[in-house]
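Provenance

Sequences were taken from public entries as deposited. Structures were produced by running a predictor on each sequence independently, with no templates supplied. The record for glucarate dehydratase from Streptomyces diastatochromogenes is shown for reference.
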Amino acid sequence: MTRDLTIAEVRLTPILVADAPLLNTQGVHQPYTPRLIVEVVTADGITGFGETYGDTKYLELARPLAERLPGRSVMDVNGLFSLDLAVDEDRIRGAVDAGGLRGVQSADKLRLSVLSAFEVACLDAQGRALGLPVHALLGGRVRDVVEYSAYLFYKWAGHPEGVPAEPDDWGAALDPAGVVAQARQFKERYGFTSFKLKGGVFPPEEEIAAVRALAEAFPGHPLRLDPNGAWSVETSLKVAKELGDVLEYLEDPTLGTPAMAEVSAGTDVPLATNMCVTTFGEIKEAFTEDAVQVVLSDHHYWGGLRNTRHLAAICDVFGVGVSMHSNTHLGISLAAMTQVASTVPNLHHACDSHYPWQSEDVLTERLAFTDGRVAVSDAPGLGVELDRDELARLHRRWAEDDGTMRERDDAAAMRVAEPEWRTPVMPRW
Ligand SMILES: O=C([O-])C(=O)C[C@H](O)[C@@H](O)C(=O)[O-]
Ligand SMILES: [Mg+2]
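Predicted structure for glucarate dehydratase:
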C-alpha cells in the first residue's frame, strides 16, 4: 500500500513530570521537571513520538520549527537538519541551568537538542508506516537487549517541607549505608548489576567510602563515580588512586579537556565524559590528548539517533569506548535510546538511565528492566503508545505552574532548603 508520508500536523506538548529530590553538585532536582513531547502526524494519520528537554529555551525553538514542518515528508530527516533555526544568543550566554551538568552551552547544541526530538518522531512515524522497528531503519539491531546501569543518587527522603511534590518510596541516601541500601533496591526491583553513583555532593572522602561500601556489598560488579567536574586535577588523581581497583571508570572528575587530559595521564583508571565531549567539535582535542576513554552519548543533545551512531563510529575509529548519558526522561526517550543502542556494535558499557526514578510516564505501558536490561522492541517504530489522559494531566500541571518549575534549576531548588546556596564555583574540592 502506498502511504502519504507528508506531515499534516505537529503537536507539541510541554509537561511537568514528578522528580525525586536527587542531589548533584549544583543542588537538587526540582519536584517537577519540564519535558517536551513532540508528535508528528502524517497525512494518512500515522503519529510518531519524540521527547526532549522542555525548558522555555527549547520550546522557543520547537514552536517555529513545528510550524514549518507541515507539507514536508517524515522521510526527509536530512532536510529537517538543514532547516535554519535562529537561536537567541541570550538564551545561551551566562545561562544557569542543569546544562551546567552537560558541558558547553552553544546555539548548535540547543538546536540539536530540539531537532533530536523531531528526528525521533519522524523515525517513529516512518517505522509505523513501513511496519518496521526504528532499529531496522538504522541498519538493524546487533543485540536483542540493552543493558543499563543503576543510577544511584544521594537523596533526601522527600522534597523540602511545604513544597508541593509527589512522594517517593526510595528513602534517604546520605551516607555509604544509604547508598548501599539504595543499590540493593535497584537490584531487587530491576536486576541491575552495574552501579553508577552521582558524586560531587559530599567531600571526596565520603564518596570514596560510599564506593568502597558498594564494592564490598556487590563484589565484582562494575562501579562508576561521577562528580560532574567538581574536583581539581589533584583531587581527581587522589580519588582515582584510592578507587582504581574497583572502578569501571571515573566520569568527569574534573572540568574541561586539558584538566581531564592531565588526570588521564596520571592514572590507569579509564575516564568517561558527558561534559567535555558533548559536540562533534570537541572530539578532536579530547581524543588527540587522550583525555577520555569513554564518551557517554546522549541522543538529545548530540542531535538524534543517526548522530549517535555517527559518534559511535568515530569513537570506534579512535579506540574510545561509547555508552550513554541520561537526564530525567520518560519512556519515549528510553525507547529511542534502546533502539539506537541496539544498533551500535561498539557499545560495551551499560548505559545510564534516570527512568527508574520517574514514577510518571506518558506511555500506556511502561518499559521494563529485567536483569538490568530493556528488551529491544521489534514492533513498528519505537514500539510505544501514548497515554493521552496522562499526557493531558502532566500538561495541565505545566499550564498551571506559575513558571517556577518550567525551567530546571537545581541550584534554585536547593535554595528552598538552604537559602544561602549558590551554584558552586568549580572545582569544589
Ligand atoms: O553527568 C551526568 O551523568 C549527568 O549530568 C546526569 C544528570 O544530569 C544528573 O547529574 C542529574 O540530573 O542530576
Ligand atoms: Mg556524567
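The chain has a mean pLDDT of 96.
Residues 22, 24, 98, 101-102, 198, 226, 228, 274, 325, 327-328, 352 surround 2,3-dihydroxy-5-OXO-hexanedioate (ligand 1) (CB under 6 Å).
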